[in-house]
Structures are given as structure tokens and as C-alpha cells.
Amino acid sequence: xxxxxxxxxxxxxxxxxxxxxxxxxxxFLLLENNIPFDIAIVxxxxxxxxxxxxxxxxxxxxxxxxxxxxxxVEIKNLSNFEKIARDIRYDFFEEIxxxxxxxxxxxxxxxxxxxxxxxMQLSKGAGLIELLGLTEIKYTNNYKTYKPLLxxxxxxxxxxxxxxxxxxxIDKSNFDEKYKRNYFRHNFSDKFLNxxxxxxxxxxxxxxxxxxxxxxxxxPIKNIEELEIFKNQNDDNLNIRxxxxxxxxxxxLLSFFQREEILKQKEITISHKINISITNNFIYIAPKVISxxxxxxxxxxxxKKIPINMRExxxxxKISIKELIL
Length: 326
Ligand SMILES: Nc1ncnc2c1ncn2[C@@H]1O[C@H](COP(=O)(O)OP(=O)(O)OP(=O)(O)O)[C@@H](O)[C@H]1O
Prior knowledge:
Layout: E1 13-16, H1 21-32, E2 38-43, H2 50-63, E3 68-72, H3 81-100, E4 104-106, H4 111-124, H5 128-131, E5 137-139, E6 144-146, H6 154-163, H7 180-213, E7 222-224, E8 227-231, H8 236-249, H9 256-265, E9 267-270, E10 274-278, E11 282-287, H10 295-303, H11 311-316
Parallel strand pairs: 1-2, 1-4, 2-3, 4-6
Antiparallel strand pairs: 5-6, 7-8, 8-11, 9-10, 10-11
Helix pairs in contact: 1-6, 4-7
Bound molecules: adenosine-5'-triphosphate.
Adenosine-5'-triphosphate binds next to helix 1, strand 2 and helix 3.
């Protein structure tokens, strides 16, 4: 399998390991390529085998001299299991990253996941940015998420494991069609991928190149605590997509009416929780907080053209105004 892991060759990496096909294959591919990494696993305790998956992870860690982080949880609310499980997983990873100074979180999402994501978005109503949501590198506050397997199909990973006699677990919940993504996977994306793999890989490359050619700056240029500052794209369609994505990350789904209002009012509070300000050059997004600010601070903000509805958040979090000058 031809994979280039050079972006993580010299960083401190944490692999999200579940013991399934994808992350087990990735574990051994990273080893093969001499990439340094440790592992983290979450046991949700809803399947019989999950205890065995954790002992497998422990054995691998011991054998290959890796640090291992384990979280045991019990999720009571099974109706929203996937979302709750994901939130717990990422909170755990972030805690490990913060406390141990990891730089990169490596996950084992592969081509089937990428196409499944594409189809799921397509079914809900999405544009180019959302359809191509699974990207190789994603920048978060203080770490990067790296998905090196996005051009490799599950079949290839399975073949790699079998050829090398490597043990892995099959997550039976992946077959349960009560989860929407499984329904998609089985009825659409996996079938489509099996038949048209090369074309699909090429199409993703073309689409990603097109997106890159548009040279959109969709990531925040500043991200301090929960304050994000983006470049104003001078294009309502793009601005609202940036805002939409940021609010989604904060757990808020915008309605059509709210989107219209944001663009019209430019300085607005959404759901009593989040303040947004669109200025000539930037888009500011931060939680709404209330505080009494000293006159001197307010004056400094005025001089430095800090939007009014950002000032309280900046004050409470002791963010230096100097840092906000762009
Ligand atoms: N229990 C787990 N413990 C540690 N890592 C996990 C666990 N489950 C999944 N992962 C990691 O997350 C990757 C994606 O897994 P999966 O497709 O099940 O997640 P998902 O529901 O699509 O969530 P998301 O895409 O938001 O990470 C896996 O390849 C693996 O790297």
C-alpha cells in the first residue's frame, strides 16, 4: 500500500484506535513506516466484544511500546448513541492532547467513510464545502487532525490485515440499519464504491482541486478561547457558510430566517448564546457574555475598532487586544 505519512514523521501523534479494520490497519501501517505514535481507545460497553478490543489494544501497546489511554463509559441514552459517543470520544482525545502535548490526532477514516459522508450530505442539501467535509488535514484550536487513509477503501485495508495475519475486530453495530449512516453505507455508498472505485477517487481529486483553486480562506485566522475571527470573503454565500459551520461546531443549527438576518443585520446575537459581527474585513464569532467593562477598556476597543458585541467576551477572557489586531 503506497502511503506517504511524511506530514507526521516528526510530530507527537495520537492514534484514535478502536480495534476495527481501519484503525488496526492504520496502527500497523504507521509502524511499518516508522511513524511515532501512541494510542487512545474508548470503551462504550454496549457490545460484548468491546472488552476484548480494549485488551487487544493493551497488548499491542505493550508489544510495540506505545502509551495507551483508555476511557470506559456507559451511555444510557441509546437513541442518540452515535452523536453522544462521538462527543465523548473527541472530548477524551482533546483532554489527552492538552495534558500530554500531542500535536496531531490521527483517525482511520477511509474512502468508504468519505463517500458515505458525501452521500449523507447530498441527501440533506449541501454545497461543495459540505460535500467535501472529510479532509486529510483539519486544523483545530491547538492540534491537527490527520486522516491518511481517505483514498484507501475498506476492502484494501481488510486485505492488508489478512495478508499479514493481523487480528482485528468486526463491529457488528456497523450492520445495524437503525443508524442512518449504516443504511446509507449498505444501500448506496459501499455498493457504488465497489463498482466505480477509480472514477470516484479521481472525482474527489478533481473536486478538491476545484475547491483549492477557489482559494477560500474558510479556517479562522485567529482562534482564541471560543472567539473566532475569519476573513470577510466579500461574498454573502461564502460568509454565511463560514458562520454556519462555526455555529454547527457550537451545537447551533441555523434556520433559513436566521441566516438571512445575520447577513442583513451584520451584528447580531443568535439563540441568546452566540454573538456575530461582520465588519468590512472580518467576521467575528464569540459566545455572548455579560460583564461591566471599565471605561478605559471600552475606549481602547473603540480605537482599535473591536466590534461592540465582542468586547465583553474579550474582557472576561482577558484576551489581549494587541493579539486581535490583524
Ligand atoms: N471507540 C473508539 N476509540 C477510539 N477511536 C475510535 C473509536 N471509534 C472510532 N474511533 C476512531 O474514529 C474513526 C472513525 O470512526 P467511525 O467511523 O466509527 O466514527 P464516526 O461516527 O464517523 O465519527 P467521526 O467521523 O466524527 O470521527 C476510526 O477510524 C477511529 O480512528
